[in-house]
Amino acid sequence: MQYRTYIIAVISASAVVGATTHADQRLSERPELPEGFQVKPMTWTGLVERGGVEISLDGTIEEVTQHIRAVKKDFTWASLRRDLGVTDTPLRELDTKTNLICDVGGENSLGPLTPNVEASRDKIADMTGACVVEAGPRVCSMITCTYNAAVWLCNDNATPITPACDSLASYVSDIIEACGQDYYHGHRLCRGQEFNSDNFNVIVGWKDHC
After folding, report:
1. From what superkingdom does this record's organism come (predicted)?
2. Within-domain flag for 54
3. How many domains does the chain have?
4. 3-state DSSP assignment of residue 200
5. Does one domain contain both 105 and 64?
6. d(Cα 59, Cα 104) in Å, to the nearest integer?
7. What's the pLDDT score for residue 26?
8. Cα–Cα distance between 91 and 15 in angstroms, integer?
9. Which residues contact 110 (CB under 8 A, 6 or more apart)?
10. Of 45, 63, 84, which residue constitutes the final position of a domain?
11. Which partner from 80, 88, 104, 163 sits 20 to 30 angstroms from 110, CA to CA?
């Protein structure tokens, strides 16, 4: 019990310092999103060990992972999934998806390389817990970024949204399938946006600095 309490205290302290720095940096940057969208940090909520208590950490997958590894140096999402008994990625919720459009995500950009988008998708699929985005409308949080291939979760509701993080991987897969067909100097590029009937959407696009 004392060990668990120590983990939560140290992770929380680390998250406050790290998340504030990264959040200030993100808010000062020009968003690589359609005009009118506001960028806010994502909040991850979940367990870091079996039998633990639910905690919340601000930041992308990469930042959340860094906070956890500050006190659990051997932490991986795959090991956490095994520890919690989560073995399967959730089924695609096709009945809740309403529309998909390409060429969205990254102003004046052709888009990131498709293999890097696939790497971002795989990071999301490995996660546990919920990805929380503040109340909207038109509020987006960057979930992850791999070599300029960013994935945003955007909220058009007047209340926060809390989808399971790994459920968002299927949206990225859909965008890859529908929008990953453009070529530039021999490379396959990808960017797009898919909508959910619950008034949120996932955007895949270019980000200058991950």
Report:
1. Eukaryota
2. yes
3. 2
4. strand
5. no
6. 23
7. 34
8. 31
9. 182, 184, 189, 191, 206
10. 84
11. 163
Task: Let me know how long the chain is.
Answer: 210
Q: pTM here?
A: 0.81
Task: Give residue for tokens 């039998």.
Answer: 51
- The interaxial angle of helices 77-84 and 114-126, nearest 10 deg, is 30
Residue 43 included in any domain: yes
Residues 89-115, buried b or exposed e (16+ Cβ, 10 A)? beeeeeeebeebebebbbeebbbbbbe
**Which of these three, 54, 84, 114, is where a domain ends?**
84
- Cite the DSSP H helix spans in the chain: 2-28, 61-69, 77-84, 114-126, 169-179
pLDDT higher than 50, residue 23: no
The owner of tokens 């498709």 is 114
- Pair (79, 41) in one structural domain: yes
At residue 76, the pLDDT reads 92
**Residue 9 and residue 106 in one domain:** no
Position 60 scores a pLDDT of: 95
Question: Cα–Cα distances in Å, from 191 out to 39, 111, 199, 205, 206?
Answer: 18, 5, 20, 5, 8
| Residue 155 belongs to domain spanning | 94-206
Note whether residue 89 is domain-resident.
no
**Stretch among 20-34, 136-150, 193-207 having the lowest mean pLDDT:** 20-34
Structure tokens at 196: 């959910």
